[in-house]
Write a structure and sequence with these properties.
Blueprint: H1 4-12, H2 16-26, H3 32-45, H4 49-65, H5 68-76, H6 79-89
Length: 91
């Protein structure tokens, strides 16, 4: 199981492919969305919008290139709604 630190390392590497690889390993995990949420909130709390954008870009690449069915999972578990709320509120 990939932990939050693995996701943080992938984001800090500034390499979208590293993020995609972590997501590939864990995309079916029930806790992956919670870990993505925690990491995004942690980066937002630090006002590190570049890392949040990188994380979102990694999620986008993952969904488009590897597992289109994962997008359905992200929608079902509320990640897409949360992203749209953050974008619309400017948070």
């Amino acid at each position: 199981m990939v932990n939050l630190e693995s996701l943080e390392e992938a984001v800090s590497s500034n390499n979208i492919q590293n993020i995609v690889e972590v997501l590939q390993e864990e995309w079916s995990s029930k806790t992956i969305l919670n870990r993505l949420d925690k990491l995004a909130n942690k980066e937002l709390d630090k006002n590190d919008f570049r890392n949040v954008a990188l994380l979102l870009k990694g999620i986008q690449c993952f969904c488009m290139n590897e597992f289109k069915s994962a997008l359905s999972l992200f929608i079902q578990q509320g990640l897409v709604l949360k992203i749209s709320i953050v974008i619309n509120t400017g948070t």
